[in-house]
Amino acid sequence: MTSKLLTGAIGAAIIAIGASAVHAGTLDDVKAKGFVQCGVNGSNLAGFGAQDASGNWSGLDIDLCKAVAAAVFGDATKVKFTPLSAKDRFPALQSGEIDMLARNTTWSASRDSQLGFDFRAINYYDGQGFMAKKELGVKSALELNGASVCVQSGTTTELNLSDYFRANKMEFKPVVFEAQDEADAAYNAGRCDVYTTDASGLYSIRLKMANPDDHVVLPEIISKEPLGPAVRQNDSKWFDVVTYAHYAMVTAEEFGITQANVEEMKKSENPDIKRFLGEEADSTIGADLGLPKDWAVQIVKAVGNYGESFERNVGAGSPLKIQRGLNALWSKGGLQYAPPIR
Amino acid sequence: MAVTDARLRGGDAEPKVSLLYNPALRSYAYQAITIIVIVWAVWYAWTNAAANLARANMQAGFGFLNSRAGFDIAQTLISYSSDSTYFRALEVGLLNTLVIAFFGVITATIVGLLVGIGRLSPNWLISRLCTVYVEIFRNIPPLLVIFFWYLGVLALLPTIRSILQGLKPAVGQDPVAVPSFFISNRGIYMPAPIAGEGFGIVVAAFITGIVLAIIFTIWANRRQLATGKRPPVLWVNLALIVLFPMVIFFVVGRPLTLDYAVPGAFNLKGGMVIGPEFLALYLALSLYTAAFIAEIVRAGIRGVSKGQSEAAYALGIRPGLTTRLVVLPQALRIIIPPLTSQYLNLIKNSSLAVAVGYADLVAVGGTILNQSGKSIEIISIWMLIYVSISLTTSLFMNWFNAKMALVER
């Protein structure tokens, strides 16, 4: 009886506290503290989130964080980065330690629902692949029966790996590491035959190897890995800001607006471009998002359009030399498509 | 009269003091305040967590333990596949933790005892070597010791590739005989014993042998006390524990086959393998803790008065026997309590497994935490299990300590 009473009392207290917990939106919090706290890759994943010797961050995910800061404050430097491992990233976002997570994170239904996050924008369409040493003479992932596979724990990669080998009735020995650097070192030392992660990551990790040409990325892509920024669920205003920061970059590429010509484009006669850049007299798009009128201009000035960011970080202008492929604009046969900004 | 009564009564009763200074009441009040503070703290933590979970639209509860894990684990002592539940995965992790703790504690104790005694050896070389050992391992963080073994020693062993290539016969040559033991950077491969029908009888014979040996030892001790003659305990016990099960083994027709490791496409297939992750963690934790145990043992031996060993020598007891029969039993009383702390440290340090990818409780739990997002639940499970293991160890050591304590007559 007493324990029932107690349980009831505690239950009531929880409901009371839960109902009375007033939480201002993240957008207001960010504006109040004056910077965006962005969770990024902590293991130097070149092209997505990496730090150079002098501590400067660069990468596709870094550009997105900067774009959000530029949109909110008109200043891309008002962003602080929290380097995170695959395992730590979700608790960091859940607990409010970071405002947004841009850490080559796969959007999946369970993360969207069970973990209490929201995903929408996809800043890189990826898929899981395998990398092996050339001397093994492996031509296809289907020849990997019995291999030892290095993989990072707490990733969708780990789950896809099990499913793929199971579906193809093959066996494998997982060698699981929490940090990507440890997995890299183990693969390099021959602890495993094969390394698996997102294909973009494989190219980046191959560059870190003593002799990149000794390693071959196998042709099979075994999963869909839409990578994008995540925010906490039920925070629509902040969710919109993060989402549209990416869409603004894509839209800018569509309109041919670049870092170099953005000031000039403001004078454009095209009403779509004028509206997008906040040059239309009665434009309220920025204000409705809770942002300054020239938010899109600030984004493009800070990081360029999506195409520029892509080429600089992972494409032709980077050591990774990844083709646009799925990440080309929809009008050029890819999947990058932004809703009309009007 | 009435006044006198009152005075008399007043005289009998305790002196009237303010309730504030009543010692009994005061101690109750302090306890009540303590309880209120604890209850409040727990309540606050609970409601705060619940409110935060509600805000993030997450449900608390342990129901998720029944859902499919979906990931594979390399080192499993019980059957497990990606189709098993999270609960099963946690069991695998817990067993892996217990295995490390068990072997680590035993090895650390043996090495620690030897090094501790060695430091007191009159032999200059032995005592200096033991000092160097203690000073090196005591002053390096355990994580570095683990990395030293994993990356500095085990990773440099022959690669599996070179082993597989060495086994390939050259063109026109006879096939190379496959050895049954391999030492590679992917672990130590050895034949796996597979119990056949009737092996249970051998196990039963072995257990019977141990029980008989204990009974014989007790009888032998009594006999020695009574007659002064010591029966050949060592030989009889060896026969009971080793020879007896061996004879039974051959009588029931050798019900044991060996499964040899054979070369496969990428790895050696079959057999039994001890992975480098386990080895690195096991060697690092036991050698690291052994350094501390050695110091405790040395302190314990030093704590026994020198007169004790001098008296033993005077009676003509040899130095080895003196240590074993006179010094160590007394030293144990000093050694056991701090030894318990070292055991607990070793068990808790086993959570460093995550650094080398050994699938212990923390590594497996971390993956589940990430996959399911149930941080609070997983962390409570971790805390509960570590507290249980540690308390069980403490209980056992306290019992052992009580048994070893000085019996006053």
What is the chain-wise order of helices and strands of chain B?
Answer: HHHHHHEEEHHEEEEHHHHH
Mean pLDDT across all residues of chain B, rounded? 87
Structural class of chain A: alpha/beta
Q: How would a textbook summarize the main sheet of chain A? A: 5 strands, mixed
| The named CATH superfamily of the largest domain in chain A | Periplasmic binding protein-like II
- State the CATH architecture of the largest domain in chain A: 3-Layer(aba) Sandwich
- Biggest sheet, spatial arrangement of strands of chain B: 1-2-7
The CATH class of the largest domain in chain A, by name, is Alpha Beta
Q: CATH superfamily membership of one domain in chain B, which one?
A: MetI-like
H and E order of chain A: HHEEEHEHEHEEEEHEHEHEEEHHHHHH
> What overall geometry of chain B do the principal axes of the alpha carbons give?
globular
CATH class annotation of one domain in chain B: Mainly Alpha
Verbal overview:
The complex is a heterodimer of chains A (342) and B (409). Chain A has 342 residues and is of the alpha/beta class. Chain A has 2 domains: 26-125 and 227-330, 3-Layer(aba) Sandwich (D-Maltodextrin-Binding Protein, domain 2), CATH 3.40.190.10; 128-223, 3-Layer(aba) Sandwich (D-Maltodextrin-Binding Protein, domain 2), CATH 3.40.190. Chain A contains 14 helices and 14 strands. Chain A has a 5-stranded mixed β-sheet, sandwiched between helices. Chain A is globular, with a radius of gyration of 22 Å. Residues 1-22 of chain A have low confidence and may be disordered. Chain B is mainly α. Among the domains of chain B are: 17-53; 65-142 and 276-409, MetI-like (MetI-like fold, Orthogonal Bundle), CATH 1.10.3720. Chain B is 66% helix and 5% strand. Chain B contains 13 helices and 7 strands. In chain B, the strands form 3 sheets. A 3-stranded antiparallel β-sheet of chain B has the order 1-2-7. Chain B has a two-stranded antiparallel sheet with strand order 3-4. A two-stranded antiparallel sheet of chain B has the order 5-6. In chain B, helix 3 (86-119) runs antiparallel to helix 12, helix 9 packs across helix 11 and helix 11 (319-349) runs antiparallel to helix 13 (375-404). Chain B is globular. Chains A and B meet through helix 1, helix 4, helix 6, strand 10 and helix 7 of A and helix 2 and helix 12 of B.
